[in-house]
UniProtKB/TrEMBL annotation:
Name under which the protein is recorded: Serine hydroxymethyltransferase
Keyword line: Amino-acid biosynthesis, Cytoplasm, Methyltransferase, One-carbon metabolism, Pyridoxal phosphate, Transferase
EC number: 2.1.2.1
Cofactor(s) the record lists: pyridoxal 5'-phosphate
Similarity remark: Belongs to the SHMT family.
Site positions (Plays an important role in substrate specificity): H227
Gene field: glyA
Oligomer status and interactors: Homodimer.
GO biological process per UniProt: glycine biosynthetic process from serine; methylation; tetrahydrofolate interconversion
Catalytically driven reaction(s): (6R)-5,10-methylene-5,6,7,8-tetrahydrofolate + glycine + H2O = (6S)-5,6,7,8-tetrahydrofolate + L-serine
Keyword Metal-binding among record annotations: no
Domain Serine hydroxymethyltransferase-like: residue ranges: 6-382
Binding annotation for (6S)-5,6,7,8-tetrahydrofolate: L119, G123, H124, L125, E242
Subcellular localization(s) per the UniProt record: Cytoplasm
């Protein structure tokens, strides 16, 4: 990336960005929520559209001079509609959590009852955790994954829903590796007259790439971040049925937010354009092949994987099956240049700051071009590092191999 002016004007910031660039180049990114955007997405993000204020929506703004901004917002909306087969799209949400806040605001009053998956079972903070606005403002009741299968048992969800009669049911998760039965959720909601809300922040790219089932034609409302598997700028969108369009738009602005970030809207449009290309389907397919390969490699080496495998881009591994913890694994892998995030496992006996599991994801390494052969090598290195965690010599030599692989598979946006 070219930072000529920044380098001249502000060396302090420039140096920090360059250091992070080097880290991203030389390390393997296996955090399931991260990815590498293209140069084109970054150029749109870095554009002069950041100079504009445009509160409101295309055709009805509270500021003048928005004729051209309207064009970019309409383009982003049209591309998102096509990508997800959506009736209505709002492309203004600043990120995943504020998007979810807008969804709740559109459909609920404070104190209303909502059904969501428990955080330590794979849910997200914004699905009703007590420290998050969602759990503070709304009365969340929670469902869990089955303790034997690690999967969501739809009969259990039905029982809880029938008993609690929530006004809204939330599905779509942060650390769940299996396909979600959207239609069954909708059927349960129809039985008790509640709204359905899908949060596809993690899997949106796999859904756009037609490798996983799409809740958009089924559910009342769907939110997603744009920066995870979808490989766009940091941000979010909300999709809904036409009948809910006014409610959603009002909740985003003026309900939750002020002016939209028009440079990010432009970058969202670029990312949606990329995701509409046939190559993106191939990318989504490869993410899942890599993830399944990684799961198999771990299982063959005696690791316990939650739900014994994966249908998507991530796996959650119970590290106590290898006499270590999530936090310690994160540290060991940092030593060899691989980034992962520690994670709770369902019914985790250990506290959230030092949970039993680690979440591994393949979207970023797949963007880099790693395939099955390389994923097998990476799994071998991870296992060797954990087995030899006290042996500095072994860790250093693995780190060199990781760096060699990184050189062979450069980050596309950092060429
Ligand atoms: C990542 C994520 C979010 C939050 O997105 P931010 O952009 O970090 O606010 C919301 N829901 C789910 C399911 C997520 O995985």
């Amino acid at each position: 990336m070219n930072y000529k002016n920044l380098q001249q004007q502000d060396k302090e910031v420039y140096d920090i960005i360059k250091k992070e660039e080097t880290r991203q180049k030389n390390e393997l990114e296996m955090i399931a929520s991260e990815n590498y955007v293209t140069q084109a997405v970054m150029e749109a993000m870095g554009s002069i559209l950041t100079n504009k204020y445009s509160e409101g929506y295309p055709g009805s703004r509270y500021y003048g001079g928005n004729q051209i901004i309207d064009e970019i917002e309409i383009l982003a909306i049209e591309r998102a509609k096509k990508l997800f087969h959506a009736e209505h799209v709002n492309v203004q949400p600043l990120s995943g959590s504020p998007a979810n806040a807008s969804v709740y605001m559109a459909f609920l009053k404070p104190g209303d009852k909502v059904l969501g998956l428990k955080l330590d079972h794979g849910g997200h903070l914004s699905h009703g955790h007590s420290v998050n606005f969602s759990g503070i403002l709304y009365n969340f009741v929670q469902y869990e994954v089955d303790s034997k299968t690690g999967r969501i048992n739809m009969e259990e969800v039905r029982k809880i829903a029938q008993k609690e009669k929530p006004k809204m049911i939330v599905a779509g998760y942060s650390a769940y590796s299996r396909e979600i039965e959207w239609q069954k959720f909708q059927n349960i909601a129809d039985e008790i007259g509640s709204y359905t809300f899908a949060d596809i922040a993690h899997t949106a790219g796999l859904i756009a790439g037609e490798q996983m089932d799409n809740p958009v034609p089924i559910f009342d409302v769907v939110s997603t971040t744009t920066h995870k598997t979808l490989r766009g700028p940091r941000g979010a969108i909300i999709m809904c049925k036409e009948k809910h369009a006014k409610k959603i738009d009002k909740a985003v602005f003026p309900g939750m937010q002020g002016g939209p970030h028009d440079h990010i809207t432009a970058a969202k449009a670029v990312a949606f354009g990329e995701a509409l290309k046939p190559e993106f389907k191939e990318y989504a397919k490869k993410i899942i092949i890599n993830s399944k390969t990684l799961a198999e490699e771990f299982i063959n080496r005696g690791y316990r994987i939650i739900s014994d495998g994966t249908d998507n881009h991530l796996i959650v591994v119970d590290m106590t099956s290898k006499n270590t913890s999530g936090k310690e694994t994160e540290k060991i892998l940092e030593r060899i240049g691989i980034s992962v995030s520690r994670s709770t496992i369902p019914n985790d006996p250990n506290p959230p700051m030092n949970p039993s599991g680690v979440r591994f994801g393949t979207p970023a390494i797949t963007t880099r071009g790693l395939g099955e052969k390389e994923v097998k090598q990476v799994a071998g290195w991870i296992d060797a590092a954990i087995t030899n965690k006290e042996d500095i010599g072994v860790l250093n030599s693995i780190k060199k191999e990781v760096e060699e692989m990184c050189k062979k598979f450069p980050v596309p946006g950092l060429l």
